[in-house]
Each structure stands twice: as C-alpha cells, then as structure tokens.
Write a structure and sequence with these properties.
globular, six-stranded mixed β-sheet, three-stranded antiparallel β-sheet, D-Maltodextrin-Binding Protein, domain 2, alpha/beta
Length: 324
C-alpha cells in the first residue's frame, strides 16, 4: 500500500512540475552512480549498500557502485555526500547514528541532517539483540537487572564506540532499569563482537544480521530483542520492553542526496528504490537478515529524522555521552 502511494505521488509530482523542469530526470541515469557508504567494509551498512547497489544497477540500467568512506562515526562519508555535485550521480547511505545522534553528540558537525540533504527514502529497519557472554549467570532481562543491582559498575558492556546506537541504547536501558554498568567502547563491531565472545565484556547490543551466527553456535547468549514487538525470525525471544515497559530501539537505514539535487531526480531515485523494495526476493533477503523493508515518500524519511533527532538528543543529554 505504501509503495503504491509513493509511486502515485511521484507521478503526480512530475505532472505538477513546469514542462522545462521535467526533462531533468528524463534520461537519467546516463552514467554510473556512486553510492557512498560512510562506514567501512564488513558491517551491516556496507552489506546493505552493496546489496541495494546491485539491485539499483538492474533497476536503473546503469552501474551503481559502492564507495566506502568510513571513519569518524559516519561524518567523513556524510560530508562527502553533502558536498557532492547535486546532479543525481551521488547517493549516500544514512543511518540512525549519522543522522540523529551525531548532531547532539558532536559540538561541531560539518553537516546539518535536515538542511544539507535531500532525504530520498527509508530503506529498512533492523532487529537488534540484547546479548550476554555465556559466563554471565543470567537468562533473562529481569535476571540481568537483578545481577547488575548487586554488582554496580562491575559488569562491562561493550559497544562499537562512544555515542553509537549500541552505546546509547544500553545506557537508556540501564537508566530505565536503575542499574549501572561499565562502558567499554571499541572501534566498530569488528572489534566489539570478538571482545564479547572472548568475555572481555559481558553485555552487548547488536543487529541480528551480524551476530546471529554466534548466537546459534552458543558463543553468546541472546536475552531479548530491543524492538517493540518480537522478531518473526526469533519468535521465542521476548522483548526488553516485556520487562522495561516503553523501551524500544531499532536501527534504521536510508538514502540521501545533496540538498540542491533537483526534485525530479530525487523522486526518480525514490521511485526506483521503492520498486526494488517491492521485489519478493528483496523482501525475502531482508527477512533473513531480520530486517523490515520500509520505502515510501521522501517526506516520511524527513519526518523520521526530525522525530528521532529529538528522541536521541534527549538520550545523549541524559546519559552525558560525549564524542571522543
């Protein structure tokens, strides 16, 4: 339903444009399109960027290639995307931390999430897991909270870095539960996950797609999902909210273009991605990664950024998190 509405909105928007403006997207694209991923290879952002680049190549009829610009919590890649020529040949992957956490975490940021980008489309949400090392004698959120209350500051929780969604989500959970754990930040999940597996940390929040193999093997234990509802692929796992009413954390991903990009080009890419998200095999792939396809109109993505900027800005303030 949302996809059909987005396509209709696209057609109506084109019809309302002056005739001279419409050809801006008429023959687009006529050359390869760069897809900036502001995060290094190997993580979920990179996995999604490469998957959608392949699908967009087929849909647009021109190569869409991934350009990894990792570093500084997505800031380097975001700035590169912001400063790219607004001609439709550079799109940028966006996520929760880059668009809605960084603005509150960093005193000086080279981009404004609302002003400096055209918000093309929401791609997907991912389910996250609250995990513990098997040596920790807990098998539920309730037991974890009880143990942490008897050992304040003694349990280590890891994250991909200060101010990352995993860090702030765990701090939010701790605040709601009235517990204190010791934060150990790492440089990305590539270092944080092995630390959890090795027992250097005892608690961690991570997307299903990048941790499920270690849950299956028994190297780590999943206590709950962090979304408001249970995950279809893990129906037996409760939610954190079952114990802490109102707790909710989901990671999300989207696509940006430079702010000055002509509206017809933004709508052309939006329409192409909506078509990709409607494909049965794409839905199946995302489901296997414990992800929910989103899509829709650009305005829906803008609304999410506004809404979650306010929410995570408060979490940053309440937890006292500061960028390194």
């Amino acid at each position: 339903m949302r996809i059909g509405m987005a396509v209709n909105a696209f057609v109506l928007a084109l019809a309302a444009l002056p005739a001279a403006a419409q050809p801006a997207a008429g023959g687009y694209p006529t050359k390869p399109v760069r897809f900036i991923c502001p995060f290094p290879p190997g993580g979920l952002n990179d996995l999604l960027a490469r998957f959608f680049a392949q699908r967009l190549t087929e849909t647009l009829g021109q190569q869409v290639f991934v350009d990894n610009r990792g570093g500084a919590a997505g800031i380097i890649g975001a700035e590169a995307g912001m400063r790219a020529a607004p001609d439709g040949y550079t799109i940028t992957m966006a996520n929760l931390s880059m668009m809605t956490i960084n603005p509150s975490l960093y005193a000086k940021l080279p981009y404004d999430s609302l002003r400096d980008f055209a918000h093309v489309i929401e791609l997907a949400e991912s389910v996250n897991l609250l995990l513990v090392h098997p040596s920790l004698p807990v098998r539920s959120v309730k037991q974890l909270i009880a143990l942490a209350k008897t050992r304040p500051g003694e349990i280590n929780f890891g994250s991909p870095g200060i101010g990352t969604p995993g860090h702030l989500a765990t701090e939010l959970m701790s605040t709601m539960a009235g517990i204190k754990m010791h934060h150990v930040p790492y440089k990305g999940s590539g270092a944080g996950i092995p630390a959890l597996i090795g027992g250097e940390t005892q608690v961690y929040i991570e997307p299903v797609a990048t941790i499920i193999q270690h849950v299956t093997s028994g190297r780590v234990r999943a206590l709950a999902v962090t979304s408001a509802q249970r995950a279809a692929m893990l129906p037996d796992l409760p939610t954190v909210a079952d114990t802490l009413a109102g707790f909710e954390f989901t990671s999300w991903y989207g696509v940006l273009m430079p702010a000055a990009t002509p509206r017809p080009l933004v709508l052309r890419v939006n329409e192409a991605i909506n078509r990709v998200l409607a494909q049965a095999e794409v839905k199946e792939y995302l489901a296997k990664q414990a992800m929910v396809p989103l899509g829709g109109a650009p305005e829906a993505f803008t609304a999410r950024i506004k809404r979650e900027s306010a929410r995570w800005g408060k979490v940053v303030k309440d937890t006292g998190a500061r960028a390194e």
